[in-house]
Amino acid sequence: MTRWSAASPPWSRTWPTSWSRGATAPAASASRVTFDAAASAAAAALAAGFSGVPGEICLAVSGGGDSLALLALAADWAAATGHPLSVATVDHRLRAEAAAEAAAVAARCAALDLPHATLAWDGGPGAGNLSQAARDARRALLSGHAAARGAAAVALAHTADDQAETFLMRLARGSGVGGLAGMAARSEVGGVLWLRPLLGIRRDTLRDVLRARGWGWAEDPSNLDARFDRVKARRALDTLAPLGLDVPRLVATASRMAEARDALDHAGQALAAAALSWSAEGEACLRPAPLRAAPRSVRLQLLADLLTAVSGRRHPPRRAALERAAEAMLGAEAPAGSLHGCLWRRRGEGLVLRREPRACPPPVPARRDQLWDGRWRVRCSAPVPEGLSLAALGPAGLAVTGRPPGGVAAETLHATPAIWHNDSLIAAPACGYPADGRAAAWSAEWTIEDARRRRVLTCR
Ligand SMILES: Nc1ncnc2c1ncn2[C@@H]1O[C@H](COP(=O)(O)OP(=O)(O)OP(=O)(O)O)[C@@H](O)[C@H]1O
């Protein structure tokens, strides 16, 4: 990328004064060379991260420095390649300045001739763990928006610094290799392809890219709030640097962990083929003998993947809890237990793992095509009338449908999706209700959306 050539020093432009931190730009020629190399590396990383994506890429841009740099680099790449881009900003409505930040991103996009949408979240006040709820809502809004536009992927602007902070936070939580592998450059969750093309690029480089263009950016005050683990991790990195434990070292370690995780996955695949079968309702049946015979790390990886898939959650259980549950499952004492929104129970010689009904989500409005509880794809082949909701079948629903033939446990059926109108059951597609075809428009398919887990677990 030659945009920042020495003939036209980009840092000679003026910085906006109101809406940026405005740190000093590199001045000496050695820094210019360093900057050119770093900026070219960022542009090359973005091009590699976006390569082969078959359609529009929707950029998630908050107005912060990282994601504005993503916008800047992606706009250059799109201008050179003609690849379609769009941009979305989520206004969580949690800070007064957020609307102005979204408007500033919109203005930037208008100047670049890129479509932009502001997606508002109204669920803030009252949400339990507010930052987790805001993150989940952001992902849901972004994936819904991308699906509505028919976009092929959503791009996030996580950096090498984010990856290193994530590594430290997971280390502190006692994560295994799966967690220590950090964030993936590509992942498929909830039917959406998520891209993180800047995971190898330093935050400071991205700030320099913006300074070079004279673009300001917004600072989210929560990035300085020491109550957040991420901020603590950022500060800890400063303390650890003299030990040689810096961002590049942690990122390199995370990528070695990703290789180890892939090797475990591979072994887990062989173990799954020997030990695992599924019912159509998403009940996992395990044969303990091959589990016992497998190396502990492979066994734990398979159990972590299973618990993640059956619970529909994005993250596996904590390592310590997983180890305790694995011991209990393979020991003789406890006949049953629960972990990570799942129930396990001994059945004959085997073990059954199923979703815990009370961990299923509260009712949501029924739509024509939606992922429910992270594990069921629920569709309707006809327009959905107003006022219908999607919620777990539960005991009340099962009392209406009765147990379908096949011997599936009532508890498993309780955690399947059902369509309701107030308290009246309209359809329970996983139970084939109603049998006379009145609600045949509804279908439900048990699904493992995450590409990595799909590889490990789809051996039926
Ligand atoms: N409000 C938002 N609207 C759209 N995308 C967002 C929003 N908040 C975060 N993102 C996306 O998620 C990524 C990671 O979020 P995180 O909260 O860690 O952001 P960050 O490190 O503060 O980055 P940025 O400086 O771009 O906000 C961002 O880089 C951005 O791509």
UniProtKB/TrEMBL annotation:
This is tRNA(Ile)-lysidine synthase. SUPFAM superfamilies: Adenine nucleotide alpha hydrolases-like. Its main location: cytoplasm. Its EC number is 6.3.4.19. The N-terminal region contains the highly conserved SGGXDS motif, predicted to be a P-loop motif involved in ATP binding. Belongs to the tRNA(Ile)-lysidine synthase family. GO terms for cellular component: cytoplasm. NCBIfam families: lysidine_TilS_N. It comes from Paroceanicella profunda. Coiled coil: none annotated. The lineage of its organism: Bacteria, Pseudomonadati, Pseudomonadota, Alphaproteobacteria, Rhodobacterales. Residues 57-235 form the tRNA(Ile)-lysidine/2-thiocytidine synthase N-terminal domain. Residues 1-22 are annotated as: Disordered. One of its GO terms (biological process) is tRNA modification. Keywords: ATP-binding, Cytoplasm, Ligase, Nucleotide-binding, tRNA processing. GO terms for molecular function: ATP binding; tRNA(Ile)-lysidine synthase activity.
